[in-house]
């Protein structure tokens, strides 16, 4: 749900607990275990279509189509669920149960934003030849000896070298210089390039040169950037423009990358309306699924968004099950609290899910939880309040998605800054407030809490640049206190 309070009283008491036979079966499956790290996840979608003979399978007692059935080869993780978990602990637990998605080869033109699936080794030295780094004159060091005695170095110009032009062998002759341009190949025997700003052409074709003490040679030697066989990029690097340039410089026209993880977004709530539908006096437009899908794209995933699901445990369970068939990660928004209309927990269990994280120590978003579905797909159950949903996306879903994508830097990168205004409200859990980011006189980031940052508000977090963490405790935080923060433009 995207509304505020849902009422109270149901809690999770209506969720049926597994009977003794289910517990016994679960224990046997746990004993089987999984290899450390797990295998790569196979592509979903077509490969996870309806198996033959599906109609002949026995349906579960709760739902049709065998909902809640557990494949024989899907072993439950042996760990007990975390209850009221710290965000970092929840992420570590769930990430440990995930394997990166499989790989595919794509044209280099399509590789931007993708995650490198294997270490990239240089096919050739970079640069592959001695390359002039400046326009000027290639010379022998011995011919500049008069400069060390206070004299002048005047050399005859023996020829010219331009970039991209193949030239035969040209041994340097004593007392001569070679006119050369940036990027051209420097023949063996020349020790340095004197930049043209330090030269003066003389009548008759000679050149007078100057070389300040300690000046660079202005020659990029073979393999100076990277020798052949060197690791240019590690597996797990996201290919941005500068990494694409490196692949192209190594002569590659394609890249071995991880496929994009598929994330199914399931909005929940009777009150949700799609854009263009009449609100009817009691509805709201579904903003959470739009936000979640957009963030998934920013992080390199492929979102699939279901139509809003009513507050009905059986219909929600069916939606979760169907979403898991074609996704690497399922994210629900709404219905995860303890009100009489909150059915996310009940639906997840009806769909065969096993709880892995039961609430998190965070405000907003304490009800945020996670389940492991029978086929191993993780379900992240986020709050329906926009602020809480947003926090759950950044603190839980983002690192899990990056882990699935094979990113090496999948853990959140926390920074340190100072609060620009006091936040005196006490809270038993860490509070994640939306903030603008400035800079203090000493260069440290300055976090300015945004006005109107209530859990049900949307306009406030449209202006947010960071999530600032106010530590748990009875006093809140004062202006100038140091706090940890996450940049919201990080991908």
Helices, by number, come to: 9
Percent of residues in β-strands: 15-25%
> What is the percent of helical residues?
10-25%
Q: Major sheet: size, sense and barrel closure?
A: 7 strands, mixed
What does this structure look like?
This protein has 491 residues and is an alpha/beta fold. The protein has 4 domains: 41-49 and 67-101 and 259-404, 3-Layer(aba) Sandwich (Molybdenum Cofactor Biosythetic Enzyme, Chain A), CATH 3.40.980.10; 104-126 and 224-258, Molybdopterin biosynthesis moea protein, domain 2 (Alpha-Beta Complex), CATH 3.90.105.10; 131-220, Molybdopterin biosynthesis moea protein, domain 3 (Molybdopterin biosynthesis moeA protein, domain 3), CATH 2.170.190.11; 415-487, Beta-clip. Helix content is 18%, strand content 24%. It has 9 helices and 26 strands. It has helices at 20-32, 87-95, 145-148, 241-249, 288-298, 313-325, 344-350, 386-404, 459-462, and strands spanning 82-85, 103-107, 120-121, 131-132, 136-139, 153-161, 176-180, 192-195, 199-201, 206-209, 219-220, 231-233, 254-258, 262-267, 272-273, 284-285, 302-305, 329-333, 354-360, 369-372, 378-382, 415-419, 431-439, 445-449, 466-470, 482-487. The strands form 7 sheets. It has a 7-stranded mixed beta sheet with strand order 1-19-20-21-18-14-17, with helices on both faces. Strands 8-5-7-6-10-9 form a 6-stranded mixed beta sheet. A 5-stranded mixed barrel has the order 22-24-23-25-26. α2 runs parallel beside α8 (386-404). Mean pLDDT is 85; it is low at 1-38 and 46-72.
């Amino acid at each position: 749900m995207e509304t505020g309070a849902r009422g109270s009283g149901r809690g999770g008491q209506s969720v049926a607990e597994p009977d003794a036979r289910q517990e016994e079966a679960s224990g046997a499956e746990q004993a089987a275990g999984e290899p450390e790290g797990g295998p790569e996840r196979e592509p979903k979608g077509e490969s996870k279509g309806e198996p033959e003979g599906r109609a002949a399978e026995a349906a579960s007692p709760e739902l049709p189509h065998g909902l809640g059935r557990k494949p024989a080869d899907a072993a439950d993780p042996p760990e007990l669920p975390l209850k009221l978990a710290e965000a970092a602990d929840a992420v570590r637990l769930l990430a440990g149960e995930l394997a990166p998605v499989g790989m595919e080869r794509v044209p280099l033109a399509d590789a931007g934003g993708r995650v490198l699936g294997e270490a990239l080794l240089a096919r050739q030295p970079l640069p592959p030849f001695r390359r002039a780094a400046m326009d000027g004159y290639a010379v022998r060091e011995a011919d500049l000896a008069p400069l060390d005695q206070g004299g002048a170095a005047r050399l005859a110009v023996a020829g010219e070298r331009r970039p991209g032009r193949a030239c035969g062998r040209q041994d340097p002759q004593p007392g001569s210089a070679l006119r050369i341009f940036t990027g051209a190949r420097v023949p063996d025997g020349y020790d340095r390039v004197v930049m043209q700003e330090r030269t003066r052409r003389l009548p008759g074709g000679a050149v007078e040169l100057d070389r300040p003490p300690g000046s660079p040679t202005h020659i990029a030697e073979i393999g100076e950037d990277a020798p052949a066989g060197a690791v240019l990029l590690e597996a797990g690097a996201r290919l941005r423009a500068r990494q694409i340039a490196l692949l192209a410089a190594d002569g590659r026209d394609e890249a071995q990358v991880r496929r994009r993880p598929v994330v199914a977004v399931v909005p929940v709530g009777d009150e949700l309306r799609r854009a263009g539908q009449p609100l009817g006096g009691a509805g709201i437009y579904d903003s959470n699924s739009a936000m979640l899908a957009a963030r998934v794209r920013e992080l390199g995933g492929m979102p699939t968004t279901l139509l809003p699901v009513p507050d009905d445990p059986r219909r929600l369970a069916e939606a979760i099950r169907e979403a898991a068939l074609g996704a690497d990660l399922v994210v629900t928004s709404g219905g995860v609290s303890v009100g009489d209309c909150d059915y996310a927990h009940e639906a997840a269990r009806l769909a065969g899910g096993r709880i892995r994280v039961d609430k998190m120590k965070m405000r907003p978003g304490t009800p945020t939880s996670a389940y492991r579905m029978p086929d191993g797909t993780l379900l992240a159950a986020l709050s329906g309040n926009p602020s809480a949903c947003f926090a759950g996306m950044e603190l839980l879903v983002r690192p899990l998605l990056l882990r699935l994508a094979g990113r090496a830097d999948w853990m959140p990168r926390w920074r340190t800054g100072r609060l620009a205004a006091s936040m005196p409200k006490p809270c038993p859990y860490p509070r994640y407030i939306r903030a603008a980011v400035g800079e203090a006189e000493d260069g440290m980031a300055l976090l300015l809490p945004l006005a109107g940052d209530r859990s049900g508000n949307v306009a406030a977090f449209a202006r947010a640049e960071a999530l600032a963490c106010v530590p748990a405790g009875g006093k809140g935080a004062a202006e100038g206190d140091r706090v940890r923060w996450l940049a919201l433009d990080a991908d």
